[in-house]
Design brief:
By secondary structure, the protein is of the alpha+beta class. The chain folds into 2 domains: 95 residues, no CATH class; 112 residues, Lambda Exonuclease, Chain A, CATH 3.90.320. The strands form 2 sheets. Strands 1-4-5-6-7 form a 5-stranded mixed sheet. A two-stranded antiparallel sheet has the order 2-3. Strand 4 and strand 5 form a beta hairpin.
Length: 262
Amino acid sequence: MWTGTVVHGIAEEGLKRAMGDLQRGGHVRDWPLEDMRHAANRQVSEDIDGSESGAWLQRPAKRTGFAEHYYATPVTREDWDAAADEIDRQVITLHENRIYQRLLASADRLTEVEELRRFTVGDPAFGAEVYLAVDAMVGDGKGGVVIIDWKTGSNHDDAEIASQLGIYGLYATQELGIPEDRIVAMHVNLRHNTETRHAVGPTEIALAREAVRAGVTELRAPLKDVARNIAEKDDFPTLAEGSAKCGWCNFRRSCGREAPKV
């Protein structure tokens, strides 16, 4: 997850630099690879140092804190170095990636880059609010759009990716008025340097709408009062003592099951 956050941040900065150049009336300037790598490395150092020192707790919503530091889980220097090396490798891959380069060349048609959006799915009585941020959306010059989704992990499920892109398509049609047959979606895996095109048309958008409805219905089911979003703690029992899942729970300190410090 951390790898993705840092690499996505570099991709976002690179594209927004290009958009800014054009908005200021100039031409798109090159962001040299070494400068990109330096920016990523600086972020890596700030994240690790800020988490290890506890400084992130001063602004927990804005800074990175690692569960490994919070719960004093042993992590070797080699583990941190390996993660930093993978981030550096993916930044190099991003810089050389043909899709990224094409986006830079088409910066005048970029319409969204990591902008947090909110829209409502379903009729007013149901009213499910969906939040999303498209990695990059670019106009195709013909009334349609191309949606780009960067991936950085080692394993990604195609069905989950297709579902996510379907929701992006739902947003594009419902909020931006893009025709359902004028959307192209691609996920670009920077770990493996591959790209996959996904169909996002009427069928996928309809499935996305139903998936949102089903997911929200499931989340609302345990609520005591759905209209006021009120839940009762007793309706959410804790895991059985000794459950292996407790070792990975980010809230295990809250219920007194924090793993022993080594």
